[in-house]
UniProtKB/TrEMBL annotation:
Keywords: Acyltransferase, Transferase
One family name in Pfam for this protein: Acetyltransf_1
Species of provenance: Microvirga arsenatis
Organism taxonomic ancestry: Bacteria, Pseudomonadati, Pseudomonadota, Alphaproteobacteria, Hyphomicrobiales
Protein name listed in UniProt: GNAT family N-acetyltransferase
UniProt key word Transferase: yes
PROSITE patterns: GNAT (PS51186)
């Protein structure tokens, strides 16, 4: 690849593990996606815990993630705690490869079953999780507090790896 090609053709998006060094960026992405965002300190604490694993999606030449997924592993099960994409990366098909990579990494670490919860009105997330093979396992009425003061039902979902 020539020098000119490197400037004209940005590198393909890629996924790689992230740690506490990315806490501020993950907090900023989370704040852009959720009405009750987690702080940088929240992410630093989570990312320092044993059994917590996070992957970031990197688009273009930026050294900062454009999205991330964070899970907690206990024995042979994991819970996806949160997934978020920066506003500029949403709707571009990046979440599926990010999650697929993360699920593969969980499987390599011996995880046999993955759990998550999602707001029942989050159609894009539900479609993604269903495409990846997650099935609904339960409902938690009034679980999420929305920005407008209303409450929304959470759907619990699981996937056998």
């Amino acid at each position: 690849m020539s020098i000119l090609d490197r400037f004209i053709h940005p590198p393909a998006p890629h996924v790689q593990p992230v740690g506490t060094e990315a806490a501020a960026r993950l907090a900023a992405i989370h704040a852009s996606a959720f009405p009750r965002p987690w702080s940088t300190l929240d992410f630093e604490r989570l990312l320092s815990e044993r059994g917590v694993m996070a992957d970031g999606l990197f688009v273009g030449r930026s050294g900062k993630p454009s999205g991330f997924v964070l899970s907690r592993i206990v024995l042979d099960e994991a819970e996806i705690i949160t997934v978020a994409m920066a506003a500029e990366a949403r709707g571009k098909g990046h979440a599926r490869p990010l999650l697929a990579h993360h699920l593969e990494a969980l499987s390599r670490r011996g995880v046999a079953r993955v759990h998550l919860e999602v707001e029942e009105g989050n159609a894009p997330a539900l479609a993604l999780y269903r495409r990846l093979g997650f099935g609904e396992t339960g409902r938690r009425a009034g679980y999420y507090h929305k920005a407008d003061g209303t409450k929304a039902t959470a759907l619990t979902m699981a996937l056998a790896l």
